[in-house]
Fold:
Amino acid sequence: MLLHLSTWTEVEAYLKHSQAIILPIGSTEQHSPMGLIGTDAICAQESARGVGDATGALVGPTIHVGMALHHCDFPGTISLRPTTLIQVIKDYLTCLTTAGFTKFFFINGHGGNIATLKAAFAETYGHLADLRLPNASLVKCRLANWFTCSSVYQLAKDLYGDQEGDHATPSEVAFTQYFYPEAIKEVHLSAEVCSENKIYSAADFRRRYPDGRMGSNPALAKPEHGKQFYELAVKELSNYYLEFVAGE
Amino acid sequence: MLLHLSTWTEVEAYLKHSQAIILPIGSTEQHSPMGLIGTDAICAQESARGVGDATGALVGPTIHVGMALHHCDFPGTISLRPTTLIQVIKDYLTCLTTAGFTKFFFINGHGGNIATLKAAFAETYGHLADLRLPNASLVKCRLANWFTCSSVYQLAKDLYGDQEGDHATPSEVAFTQYFYPEAIKEVHLSAEVCSENKIYSAADFRRRYPDGRMGSNPALAKPEHGKQFYELAVKELSNYYLEFVAGE
Amino acid sequence: MLLHLSTWTEVEAYLKHSQAIILPIGSTEQHSPMGLIGTDAICAQESARGVGDATGALVGPTIHVGMALHHCDFPGTISLRPTTLIQVIKDYLTCLTTAGFTKFFFINGHGGNIATLKAAFAETYGHLADLRLPNASLVKCRLANWFTCSSVYQLAKDLYGDQEGDHATPSEVAFTQYFYPEAIKEVHLSAEVCSENKIYSAADFRRRYPDGRMGSNPALAKPEHGKQFYELAVKELSNYYLEFVAGE
Amino acid sequence: MLLHLSTWTEVEAYLKHSQAIILPIGSTEQHSPMGLIGTDAICAQESARGVGDATGALVGPTIHVGMALHHCDFPGTISLRPTTLIQVIKDYLTCLTTAGFTKFFFINGHGGNIATLKAAFAETYGHLADLRLPNASLVKCRLANWFTCSSVYQLAKDLYGDQEGDHATPSEVAFTQYFYPEAIKEVHLSAEVCSENKIYSAADFRRRYPDGRMGSNPALAKPEHGKQFYELAVKELSNYYLEFVAGE
Amino acid sequence: MLLHLSTWTEVEAYLKHSQAIILPIGSTEQHSPMGLIGTDAICAQESARGVGDATGALVGPTIHVGMALHHCDFPGTISLRPTTLIQVIKDYLTCLTTAGFTKFFFINGHGGNIATLKAAFAETYGHLADLRLPNASLVKCRLANWFTCSSVYQLAKDLYGDQEGDHATPSEVAFTQYFYPEAIKEVHLSAEVCSENKIYSAADFRRRYPDGRMGSNPALAKPEHGKQFYELAVKELSNYYLEFVAGE
Amino acid sequence: MLLHLSTWTEVEAYLKHSQAIILPIGSTEQHSPMGLIGTDAICAQESARGVGDATGALVGPTIHVGMALHHCDFPGTISLRPTTLIQVIKDYLTCLTTAGFTKFFFINGHGGNIATLKAAFAETYGHLADLRLPNASLVKCRLANWFTCSSVYQLAKDLYGDQEGDHATPSEVAFTQYFYPEAIKEVHLSAEVCSENKIYSAADFRRRYPDGRMGSNPALAKPEHGKQFYELAVKELSNYYLEFVAGE
Structure:
């Protein structure tokens, strides 16, 4: 059930039997000359919709822009500062908690969002308590990265070994290829790639990783891999969601 | 050309011949028991993509959540506070200006965003000057509402007369029906509807407009109307975009 | 009744029969080599005092500095950033609502304030609801520009035609001349003036409008015109105020 | 020379021989059932104008609302939070420093502003350095309270002794009576008054000082005293201003 | 009783008989080539612990970094901006008030903190009222500088006369020597020292006071003086604390 | 070398051969009825000083209060909101980078700080770039938790097995016992303890973990264990520091 294709009366009805909502969050950032700028948002959105279909959960609109300041020396990247993203999350959850939601399951497509999202959850719990909302103490946020699902991780290792790397990975590129085959890019990438995993400033990032890849070889990606990643992610995330909703 | 389906090297190439980008912005808010919560985002996104196709412009990711605090007493609404939305816009434009963009064409689907967006533009011009970006003084933002296009306005008047109303209008509902016919809702709406146009707090809004409509009869909407609205909007907005890009 | 010349016990008594207050807001910004830097504040303040006299309304202190970032490349301009002005308005209205006021009638002298004020109203409604003030849901803000009164607009057109322009207009200059005849400036203005109406950054503004005028000829202003403008504005704004106070 | 009655070209000319400006700041707060809510703003504004006349200094618009949170349980009080006032001052001084001003002489009418203003000066020096304005390191702010001038203090002691008190003092009430004789209030005040000088929360303030006075007897005020206070303040503040402008 | 060496159950027990806590605040800033960067924090911390021992008061953790922007052109200085420090204080006091504390006694070692702390107290009173904490209106903050104790001041005058100066004073240096004799520096200081007391920007400060001293001669400091200063400060501050706790 | 016991001239000299600084950060929060409220700050501070002694690194003042909102329903806890802590870190690093430091090694004693610190690093890199500091792109932050050192982790497992738990662990309690044997608490703890590891709001935390422990048995702690933990942490962190300083 997609929030954007629902009406308020349908949401009102949904709230009678569930107070949980899935919020997909991605990023708008360079993914090397081969991966799409929307990679993380696409993966998060499609995983979330798959989980929504599998579990009946309500799925909110995708947050397309996350925390990607370190990618900002590559054109096309858009990022929020961490403090802005925290305000955004706080505003979302305040609206939704006021309406009766208490369980927020974030399906995330970008490693760079993790720290800021966790900080935002803490900020929000405090804010909701300050507002004295009656359901404030029941609110629970959970962060679920599709790319750290163990089944996904295992498949990436099996298919790509060391060439999976840390950014612009073949697994995420494959995921997007499955959904957007028309946007598969034919690009020649340098054989050499920096395999460090150090993230500091945007200027340092571009110096260190000149074409944007971190130890990866996205040329290994294939749409049919993407289908596998998608299905594994949906299955594992669905279980995780159901467990979250059932738990205290 | 969709930013999310492009690579950073493609954006780099695009910037050599154009420094303009289209940013669609909608809202996630109640649109009566008949209209979709994603109405404004859908209309903005599809208009923007149409304009992108017609003009070759780069189209950024849709901002799904805008300024809709007055709708927050209806479940399913999500809103940013104005000050949060201003920070979001400032962050977006700072990234994009740093990369070389200078012309920002916002295609907007929600009246409630207008004031905050204009405030955000002013805040951003000042901020870019503070940062001493070399292209700061060239930056120009333009706000284009699909629903205030004169051709759109005229068609709505012709088709619906007074029943167009001010919120959850048949024109916007028709627009979404054309793109999501599977999400057309069969709902019985009260014949009576408050035809004022006064917006204060969320609590006042719900008291004044109990089902969320402001003077509108969305039951008049038809998908084929939506096609007409879409085509008129794309045509008029494309001209407006081209004029903006050409102008000083 | 001027707040500044009243005591708290008088305000307490006033609140027993009215919960409305007028807040004049202007700007401190260049108005060409002929118009006063305080033009917008003077017009707002005098209009507000006139309405206060005509209706018995309480009139608060004038907000002299508004949102004029685009004028900041001309010396003497002082501006708040939009986010600062929003905080200012929120603080004002929080104090006044706590004291029992619920209807805020802003008499505005500056077009550049409009968007930010509307954003501030939305921010404030949300904030007051967060604070759980008992009268929060009754709070209503209204923005009334003296210069968009239809009678004022018509007179300006009759007197000046196209030479009214958009900034440093003869109508606003005349208004100040009526109140400060000692500050009428004898200046020779260039016959050429840019008649565009495009506002971006401060640097762009100064390039586009080198002496600060936007399509206007303030040399046409006369103090006796100012008297007429003043009287029309007071009359029309008084009616608007009374209707606002009476309305739900 | 009043900024509000000047043009930008006059300010440009002024800046060639002086980079100093006087900024009056008051408060909008209860001053007992006898003193005016605008007392502090009136005293600051009139003192500033007097100094401007005596020294040829440029005088900016009066900041009518300062930091008066502790008075907010009395109706009619309007206050900025300290963090808001800091942003306001920062915005003012950033505009003015960009234009070429470097010496800011605040004439203050309210004790409650002092701490926040000093904090604002520090915040602003840091901000201007961050902006890398060429004249940033020359900027100097000075705070001058009319009511702590030694001559003023002495006269208050001579005229009122212990009954001068700490808030709603006869000296400040007399000052306003001199300028607004039409607003002299005939009120019977209780003979008893709390003579502590402790300021905590607004609720505590109202409990401690039920009618708003802190140890004062404003009934002693006379307009002719006000004239004396005014003249002493202008003389002493003018000297202080000239010394500030001359100093390094 | 040191908060850091206590458990929450001990704090719970303490709260049954006292709602007061001492919060030491210093600064991390240059104190000339002879004084320690931690001078202000050391003096505040040791004074606070002495008062805690003498009175049984609970002593919180030392705030080591305060408002020292004007010292930032000397390496080793760390400062918060005033607005940051205000948020810090507000967060501290909100936590502590929620837990039941209502009397906050700040023992301060740095003149540059005074204005910001006072602004922070006002901001906090307002914030606690907004949160509707049941004990909000009882909250009282008090600022006690060890170096403005009259006995301390008198001893400094007796020992050093004019060479006490205003920054990197022999009294504060002596205080730290008593606690950290191993960190006594042997440095040759210039005989000349600027004896002004003017604080503006960091750049101005360094120009004006090239080695960081303001009119002082810290070479006069001796550890045995430090013992005297410490004992006088503890005695006087203890009385002040007890009076604060006993008072309404 | 402790910053607080150094002078600015010593820091100036230090910067000629190293641009690195260690910043210890802890928390002020409940650690069950047995563990000290200052546990995390003590462990971070002592680890940092040990590393400083072993490597010659400069050690800044301990940040005693971190992000512990989830512990705030236990008295004695003090927390910053995540957005406040981000501002604090940004202010620290801006001062230090301006002075010439570029490598910031945070030794952390509290799991709850991790997300916010990482968000703060990202925010700071962006801010330093905005300021155009010449060394901005060289700045690198590194987070090192003493409790996640592999040697520490292994010893805890060996000594305590499952009873190490997740909060108020015997390892951290032992660490503090070694440094503060006088503050060892004799308390009877319930044999039952919740062994979940779920952190949401403060109210939820207290309901879930009634005495503050998360699956731990701090009664197993002994000062001599603490000595071992301390020595292992210092050794491992020293290597990590040296590697960080040497690396690009």
User: Anything to note?
Assistant: Chain F has a mean pLDDT of 97. Chain F touches chain D at residues 131-132 (CB under 8 Å). Residues 3-239 of chain F form a domain with the Rossmann fold fold (CATH 3.40.50.10310).
